Amino acid sequence: MLDTRFIANDIDLGAQAVDATQSVDIYRLQVGRHGLLKAEDERQLGREINETISNLVFHLISSEAGLEKLEQLMTDYLFGYQNKDGSVSKRWAMSHEPAFIENLISSVIDLIRVTRFMNQEDSDEATNAKHNLAALLNMLSISRSYLVDLIDDDMQASPSLRKQLRRYARLRNQLVESNLRLVFSVAAKFSSVGVPYNDLIQEGNIGLIKASDRFNFTKGYRFSTYALLTIQNNVKSAIQRKYPLISRPGYLQEKMSIIREVRNAYIQKEGRKPNLAVLSELTGIPLSQLERIESFPNFSVPINTSGASDEDLTLGIEIPDKYQNSAALYEEQQQKQQIEAALAELNSREKQVILMRYGVGYKKEFTLKEVAEQLYLSIERVRQIEKKAMRKIMNE
């Protein structure tokens, strides 16, 4: 496995003997040993990775338990791209909606189960279904680390499976090592924000590994293009964690940086500070939102900081307890635990159907027709899902 703390595995730094500057310099030398991949080499590496992942999928679905785990992984992933009412989340970028792809996955998995039941696992239909399922997995760009995590100790007893796992680790490491220069270029941009440079590199390496687990070469762009955003997000998250106990959200911090840069540029040019109307026009931030941002304090204060007066005051916040009756609170907690325990037995689609049918978390109970319309299913299919879910809940 690739060491996210220090990728130059072949050098013993002696953590206590080498300071941060020396470690970064030695690390930079190790990065220079790995050459950049050409576009064709990158595509070939992507094809080998997809082939290895397909082999892992075939091993996984060779048992019913593995097939259920894979189905749960894919449906949970798609469920995360849907709002509570079943509508598509804004960050969904594929041409087909999540519900359509979920139905397609269910159809392919049902076909695999049917061929297994009929002892036709070696038929052309079963083989095509397995390849289609592996292709759908690659198309969704689900992190391959999740797929590897599904493979339990019993499955790893197979020598051929262990060989495929080692092959995937080698291919992924090759993709990561050939793009380590990206981490240096991103870390250099944030080197003056107060976070140690070697910490920025470490966080950038983690982002690079995450990108390598999701990259799909069939999309047509280079890996460096895809990985750059993931590396930047990881580095920015590390910087945000460096702030005091109560810190500003990342999106707000970015807007405040834009405002500060525009204000400084205006002062340099005009010799005076811009008013909020001018600042709003230059930054493109609505005036009402700009007023709220400007009203925030320029520093963070821990919630237990004492006041300046003689009285021992703190900034602690007291939250009143709305539950005066402890018996009522206990009963409500028990009910929540029972509901959560019952829903834990269901997959994401069954859980969504039950929640909508009984109005849990919604303002009303949905009819079969309304649920079918929201989840892009037939009424009969919703009825079957609800019946199956209730059997699981009732332990029939």
Architecture blueprint of SSEs:
Elements: H1 20-31, H2 39-60, H3 64-79, H4 98-117, H5 124-140, H6 144-150, H7 159-177, H8 180-189, H9 197-214, H10 223-241, H11 250-270, H12 276-283, H13 287-294, H14 326-343, H15 348-357, H16 368-375, H17 379-394
* Coarse structural class: mainly alpha
Helix share bin: 55-70%
Rg, nearest Å: 27 Å
The number of strands is 0
Number of domains: 4
Low-confidence stretches: 1-18, 299-320
Q: Which H/E pattern describes the elements?
A: HHHHHHHHHHHHHHHHH
Strand content: under 5%
Distance between the termini: 44 Å
> What is the general shape?
globular
Count of helical stretches? 17
Give the integer mean of the pLDDT values. Answer: 77
Major β-sheet profile: none
Quick summary:
This is Sigma-70 family RNA polymerase sigma factor. The chain has 396 residues and is mostly helical. The longest helix has 22 residues, at 39-60.
